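Please, structure for the following, as C-alpha cells.
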Amino acid sequence: MKLLEFNYKNTALVSESEVKETAVLLEKYMVHLNEIAKDNDYESLEASINLAFFENQIAESEKLADAKKSEKLKYIVVVGIGGSNLGTMAMYEALFGKLHIALNGKNPKTLFLDTNNPKLFSDIKNILEDVKDSEEILINVISKSGGTTETISNFETLYAHLKNNISNIKNRVVITTDFESKLWYAAKNSGFEVLKIPKNVGGRYSVFSAVGLFPLALLGVDVKNMLKGVKDMRDLCLSGDIEKNPALVSAILMFLHNKNGVNISNSFFFNPQLEMTGKWYRQLMGESIGKEKNKKGDTVNSGITPITSVGSTDLHSMAQLFLGGPKDKFTTFINTSAKNSGVAVPEALVLGDLVDGISGKDYFEIMDAIYGGVKKAYENKKVPYMEVVLPEINENSVGQFMQFKMIEMMFLAELLGVNAFDQPNVEDYKKETRDLLEK
C-alpha cells in the first residue's frame, strides 16, 4: 500500500531555512518519541504512538467483536461523545459514506448517540423499533473517565427502553472505559462485558485502542490493514529526515504561520466522506494546543482555531472569504490520487452546452479541474497552503492520515510549549453542569 503524499514547497510561503532552523528545536523531543517507540512504552503521555503495536489489546478487541458478531446484526449503537466516538465516526463515514444508514447492504448500520438531544434520541429509538432479537443490536458505551454526563444519561435512557422490548439485551452491551474507573466497576457489577482504555491515552488519541478497534471490527473493517497504515506512518513520522517526515514539517509550518498572526487552520477535504475526519481533527487540535497556561504555568492563552471545509460544496459559501478576506488562515488541502470514479456525465446533454467541457467527463476529472483551479487561485492570491494526497480512501490510508495528524499535534504542542495531553478547562463546564444537576 502506498503512503500518502505531503506537499508544501512553493505554496506554504515559508522559507526552507526557517523550516530547518525550527526543526532543530524538536530534535530532543524526536529522540524522546523514538525511545517510547523502541521501548513499546504504554505509560508515557505519548503512549498512543504504540497503540498499533499493542497486540494484547488488539486481540482482545477483535476476539470480543467476533463473539458479538452475528449474521442478524443490524445496528451498532455507539454511545459516547468527543474522543470516545469521533474517531470511529470519522472512519465509518470515510469507508461507508455519509448515507450508509439509508442504504441496503450486509454491513450493520452504526448509530452515534453523542449528545442529550431529544430529537436525536427519539429518531434513534424509532430506527430501532424493528429490533426484536437481541442479536440484531449491539450497544457500545464509551467513556474514558466513566462519568460523562451525556454518555451515562443516554445509555440509561436507551437501556431502559430496550430492556422492555428485547430479551437478553444485557448480553448485547459492551462498556469501554478506563481500567478500574467507577464505570468499570458498575459495568462489572451489572454483568456487562468491559474493554479497557490504556491509562495514559486520552480520548482524542484513542481511536486505535479498543475505543475504535471494537466497533470497527464489528462493522467488518479490515483492522489489520488499518493498523498496517498506522504503523507505516508512525515510523515515517518518527524519522529525523525533514524531507520525508510529514508530521514534523506540517507542525513547523503551522507554528511559523501562527507566529506571523495566522491563527486559523483550515482542513479542506475534497472528498465529502472525510468531513467527519475533519471534525475529529478539530477536537485533536482544539484540545491539544488550546491552553490557558503553558508547561511552566505561565498564562499564554495559546491556540490555533481549527475549521473544516468540504470541496466543492464550501467553495460556494466560503471561497470569497478564503481568497478575499483576512490573511489569517493556513489551509491544508486533502485529496486523493484516484482518477476513475465510475460515474460520468453523459456524452449527450439534455440541456446542451450550458457548461463547456463536461460532456463525457468522469466525476473525478471534473473535481480535479475544480481542485486545480482552487490551488491556482490560492497561489495567485498568495494564500498559504500545504497538501495531503491519499492514494485512495480506505482503512489503510485514513489510518495513515490520523496517525500523521496525532504525531503532528505532539510536535506542534512541543513548539508552542504546551501540554498536548491535558484539557483542564474542559472540567470548568463539567463541574458547573454537575452542580446545576445536583441542585
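The CA atoms of residues 262 and 328 lie 4 Å apart. The chain has 15 helices and twelve strands.
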